[in-house]
Amino acid sequence: MKILHASLTLGKCVEYNPTPSLTLSERGSAPLPKSMTVHPAHIPRWFLLLTALVTGAVVMALEILGSRLLAPVFGSSLFVWGALIGVILAAMSSGYAFGGWVSDRYTGSGVLAALLLFSGSWTFLVAWANQPILFEIEQMVQDPRWGPCLAATALLAPPAFGLSGVLPAMLRLAVADMDHLGRQTGRMIALSTVGSLAGTWGTAFFLLSWLGSQSLMAWLGGIQVGLGFLWFMKGTSARPLVSLMVLGCFALLGTMALNPIQRLKTPIYQEESPYQQVRIREDDLFRYLVLDRTFHATMWKVDPTTLFLPYSQMMVSSLALVAEPKRGLILGHGGGSLAKWLARHWPDLEVDIVEFDPVVVRMAEEYFEYRPPANHHIFVKDGRAFLNATDHTYDVMWIDAFARDMIPFHLTTTEFYSLVRRHLNPEGIVAVNLASSGKEGDLDRAAAVVQTMRQAFPVLTTFGVEGPWKTGMTPAKNLIFFGGRPIEHESESSLVAKVTELAMHQRLPMETIALLSTRRTKPWPPGVVLSDDFAPYDLLLGRERSQLAE
Fold first, then answer.
1. Which CATH topology does 309-540 take?
2. For a FRET experiment, which of 90, 162, 529, 549 has its CA 20 to 30 Å from that of 485?
């Protein structure tokens, strides 16, 4: 007879069964419920744990690597990172669910082999064909949010899905050791997380800079396929000929991954910096610095010191507004165009140059013939961090740290421009370059910058300078903003006279005289005031895409 006892500790009734329950050792050969069937362990425990570690590392390495694959086409905005993280999380969630379901349906290590071989094969295909796929998606979906989401889904969701399914499949195999199921589960999840940490830091801190994005993608595919093939050999009794044929197919995919389809022109040099993809391109007349998807410097090879781009000619015309400038600051080094020109034409000007990417600094010296003189001081540092740390004030400040699709938002806020004003001498001038397509999205962005700058510089003068070449975006131009006390009191005719005088004495490019006619007379519409707390800068990005696949 079953007797009910009141449970004083739990406050509810529990059923008492006088028949003692058996431990696993006492059960002997007694059958278990179907859901708790014990399978003999054929896989070494260390191999299970190693697989958990490696798959955790690879899935996070793919996420970090994905930002580099998308950057030359979609940029590296907040939207791109949001798309990558969201797509990877969705793929991992569905992969966990699928891995648990399929491992219950099909027991054994064949499930693990199939998941790893699938994810590795897809990774090989991504390494081989990511550029044409990305450019096709960019043409189909112009939205700056959903374009990166679709691209990340096509490239990275399948391997993240397959890799995530591995963990529940391994836990299913671990059921063979029921006495230590909790310990096995904890170890696998812990090692998978440690692997994720290693994959994140290793890729971001070392591997991208050592191997480059294309080679690293091929290596990750090879790791997955190699691990999957080991599980295939352990979990099947395939004939040697079949195994060789399978191995040959994956070797073909690996060869394709090491010889990717190129839509971008082959550079003369390419390097993955800690911050961006850096490429050097050239033709018969010019050499170009390309950072991710944006051209940042153009050097005329006949005379490397010449300021070839009209916007840079307009930027240096700000020198005409300051009587005998002593010290200048450049935020954004690029190919060193401004610094080279200042070293030749204003040799007595003390210049601090701030660039956050050490690879860009090196490229300026190795490929753009910038040789810093003794009075040029280069700081590898974020521009705002530099201003926070320095006690210097400046007669002229050039802020050239923006590209249309790569905007450091903390250099656009009222707090930043207040900091700029504090480091500008009372009679000093600041010149800011902002690239624009001239269309609605970019004009909203420009209006926001104007409204924000006016919090520190109430009077601004704007010049809309077109580039030297015709592009697919006919209204495209660089917007140059001048701010500071000289602008508040300088008449247009006086500015023309000063610029002309310096140009005649070869202290300014002759082209600046004509560029003064690009002065904007139409008032700027009200814009959003950007702050450190509220700077929706990515929402203000234009949707037009630069033509990099020419």
1. Rossmann fold (3.40.50)
2. 529
